[in-house]
Amino acid sequence: MNALVDKLATERMLTREEFKQLLVWDEPDLHTRACEIKHKVYGNQIYLRGLIEFTNFCKQNCLYCGIRCDNTQVERYRLTKEEILACCQTGYGLDFRTFVLQGGEDPYFTDDLLAEIIREIKDTYPDCAITLSVGERRYESYKRLFHAGADRYLLRHETANARLYHSLHPPSMSLERRKQCLYDLKEIGYQVGCGFLVGAPGQTLDHIVDDFLFVKELNPEMVGIGPFIPHGATPFALEKAGSLDLVLNALAILRLMLPNLLMPATTALGSIDKRGRELGVLAGANVVMPNLSPLDVRRKYLLYDDKICVDDAPKHCRGCISRRMQSVGHEIVVTRGDYIA
Ligand code: SAH
Fold it and tell me: What is the pLDDT of residues 131-142, one digit of tens each?
């Protein structure tokens, strides 16, 4: 099996069967190798992103997601521009130099309003990067937000298999449209992040190989992956969560395929295992995204059950994540943390 890791490290590609074999390999060598390759590009540095969950209103109805529009049990909220800026202020004082504005697809946040918020954050913190994660929008909208100052955009493709995509989303959504958004974002000039769920209901190893092939084709700056975790008020309430080992192997394979990627050790990974984020870093992740959202809205932004850190203030999370990274020989740095080409 080590020959396969060698092959992946040199050729950056494998056959479908080889990918599937590596995905279920249970020796630490794969992770060690991925971590070494990460060190060559990024050293032992871990980049910080401050996550601001600024709206849980969503017009979409993704079957796995706790804030889907059909979930009438969620109390909906929106942060004001002032509240978002207050999150940035707290974050800046805690060494954050990237703010991630994430939310449901909320038509209340028009291009005008989002552009105004982006401009104001950039005026106040010119040394910081802004990442948007607000779902599918029109080309012109992405363009306006980019020109207002947004640097990066996260839009997970969720799965690159069209049939699986359809089984996880309402009929109004399509993989084709999702991919088009990613290509639009790229063309406009954003640093782009795609990503996928691991262990989504109905997902096979072949589907994950489809994800690897799509990531290779898109060649993004960032890839976010994490386990699917059921949410009690969704159609997938009774499904099983994705496995830690599979997520870790997928992270390691992606690192070997695209050594320069920015990849977070996600909150979802930390939610299925106490040391999930540390293990993610040891398998090749180099980004962490602690939550900067106000404490009173945290429990309203539950995409899945048993999410960690919902009661922890940003200052607490900042200390906690530093210690966790140190425990596995990594160090959080004060920087925008841009992609190294
Ligand atoms: N509305 C934005 C942001 C979505 S939330 C968008 O469409 O991009 C960010 C990510 O959370 C999603 O892309 C999805 O991959 C993940 N997510 C949603 N529900 C989840 C669940 N039940 N388990 C694990 N991850 C989930």
Answer: 999 999 999 999
